[in-house]
Amino acid sequence: MGIFLWLFFVLLVLWLIFWLAVHVTSGLIHLLLVVAVISLIVHFVRGPRRSTV
To answer: How confident is the model at residue 50 (pLDDT cuts 50, 70, 90)?
Structure first.
């Protein structure tokens, strides 16, 4: 899996933890979700990386 896909999952899990456990109403927590979605889009737009070994 690519770095952007890992970043998506990590940020999504962080967002879910904060949303469920803390119920943060700040806009900052939703910024994590936006960054996660952007990283997922970048992952699919770039496609899989090929090794040149």
So the answer is: low
In this structure, is residue 53 part of a structural domain? no
Q: Is residue 14 part of a domain?
A: yes
> In the structure encoding, which two tokens stand for residue 49, read together?
């990386």
Of the candidates 29, 23, 15, which has an alpha carbon nearest to the alpha carbon of residue 7?
15
pTM (predicted TM-score): 0.51
- Alpha-carbon distance of 7 to 40, in angstroms, equals 8
Quickly state the pLDDT bin for 53 (edges 50, 70, 90): low
